[in-house]
Design a protein that fits this description.
Elements lengths: L11 E5 L3 H13 L2 E5 L13 E2 L1 H9 L3 H7 L1 E2 L2 E6 L4 E6 L11 E2 L2 H13 L4 E4 L3 E7 L4 E7 L2 E7 L1 E4 L6 H7 L6 E14 L10 E5 L5 E5 L5 E8 L5 H15 L10 E14 L4 E2 L2 E3 L5 E2 L6 H21 L6 H27 L8 H4 L1 H9 L3 H8 L22
Parallel strand pairs: 1-2, 1-12, 2-8, 5-14, 12-19
Antiparallel strand pairs: 3-7, 4-7, 5-6, 9-10, 10-11, 13-16, 13-17, 14-15, 15-16, 17-20, 18-19
Helix pairs in contact: 1-4, 1-7, 2-7, 7-8, 10-11
């Protein structure tokens, strides 16, 4: 082993945003011995279920943080995904059962439940504080420190750390402060998305864990998200409707898309959330001592779970960079590498694949198998187990081992 001087170039970190990305990064850093504070403007954890599926790169990071056992105890391993016509007719699919025994299998748990698990682990961890009702209002930095001005119930105060990480979501105050309120390059989809959590016996009609229904008008997804019969049903609506119009159309929509629909009492709607989806990427993920990760850094549509999985991959990569600086194995130029590579992963993987996942939803279902290359790959997977493993593990290309950027040949002097 090379001799390395422990220079502790990263003694403390402020994380803005107590969502799962921020809490996961805080847990990893505090376990390393890096003093960490998490700031959030809210009074408590977000209770919205939001995203649900964690691909292998995300599962790997949850295991590194020591929370995967708890996640799977509350959630489950999602094994099957398929594409269907509105009639329910099967087009093609992937059997995740071929990966049984692999440690990082696709796992499902609503995001709010992951937040509770992470927060519980953090409360048992030393060297970390989660500070609620701490709203960042401005930022600045010197060569040695990053500073955030924060509004609290007790008044305004200034906090400082070696680095500040924005994990504060799509409307990130850190990103806005760095680049401007309206500078988040990318596009907004014309399509109107409506996400619901619904109790309905889809399994009675042969539905597997995740089902994507291809249809030019009634395209939707039905995916099991808990062990007690709750499903995420996300569908497309006519653009330009008001929220009230969307809500008023929901019963008729369910009549058209639920298999075996028998009347308004055949399902229980737990919640409904209309929203627009975006494909956006910040100009940089590092500006001096300020860093961005997950939704604060980039957005994509939810079909395929690449936003959640890619965001957690950001967190794991950024942790390795900051840990390398802390251990004296890397200088701060590794953070430029973080920005470069995580942006590249978005541009070459997350954006194009998630975009195709959404476009596939409203192609002609009668010719989908003939016209869509990915569905053809899925069809081949049904008869070729090794090929199926290769396709399903392809998402691991989202990861990057930043420890290979460590300068281990000599001690790093900050």
């Amino acid at each position: 082993m090379p001799s390395v001087v422990d220079t502790h170039g990263c003694r403390d970190v402020i994380i803005v945003g107590a969502g799962p990305a921020g809490l996961l990064l805080a847990l990893l850093l505090s376990k390393k011995g890096i003093s960490t504070r998490v700031l959030d403007a809210a009074e408590k954890l977000d209770s919205q279920p939001r995203a649900t599926h964690y691909g292998p790169p995300a599962v790997h990071e949850l295991a590194r943080a020591g929370v995967l056992e708890d996640v799977r105890a509350e959630g489950f391993i999602a094994r099957e995904v398929c594409w269907r016509k509105l009639s329910g007719e099967y087009i093609a699919g992937l059997d995740g059962g071929v990966l049984d025994g692999y440690p990082d299998q696709l796992t499902c748990l609503p995001l709010d439940r992951l937040g509770k698990i992470l927060y519980s682990h953090l409360q048992a961890q030393s060297g970390v504080d989660v500070l609620w009702q701490h709203k960042v209002t401005s930022i600045h930095q010197s060569e040695e420190k990053a500073y955030v001005e924060v509004e609290t119930a007790a008044g305004t105060k200034m906090l400082e750390a070696d680095y500040v990480v924005g994990c504060d979501g799509a409307n990130s105050q850190i990103r806005r402060a760095l680049f401007g309120d309206w500078n988040f390059p990318g596009r907004t989809w014309d399509e109107q998305i409506v996400a619901t959590n619904t109790y309905y016996p889809f399994e009675k009609y042969g539905y597997v864990d995740a089902n994507f229904i291809i249809d030019k008008e009634h395209w939707h997804m039905a995916s099991r998200i808990t062990n007690d019969g709750l499903w995420r049903v996300t569908y497309g609506e006519v653009p330009g409707l008001t929220r009230d119009e969307i809500l008023s159309r929901q019963p008729k929509k369910f009549e058209q898309i639920l298999p075996g629909y028998s009347g308004p009492d055949c399902y229980k709607l737990a919640n409904i959330s209309p929203y627009k989806v975006h494909q956006r990427l910040a100009e940089k993920l590092r500006v001096g001592r300020f860093l961005l990760a997950a939704d604060a850094a980039h957005l994509c549509n939810p079909f395929g779970g690449l936003g959640l999985t890619g965001g957690i991959a950001d967190v794991g990569g950024l942790y390795d960079c900051l840990a390398g600086i802390y251990d004296g194995m890397a200088d701060d130029s590794i953070l430029d590498k973080y920005s470069e590579i995580r942006r590249e992963k978005y541009l070459t993987i997350v954006d194009p694949i998630s975009s195709e996942n959404l476009r596939r939803m409203f192609i002609d279902p009668e010719t989908a198998l003939e016209s869509d290359e990915f569905l053809q790959l899925c069809k081949k997977c049904e008869t070729d187990v090794e090929f199926s493993k290769q396709v399903q593990l392809g998402v691991n290309s989202l990861t990057y081992d930043f420890t290979q950027e460590y300068k281990t040949a000599k001690a790093v002097v900050p």
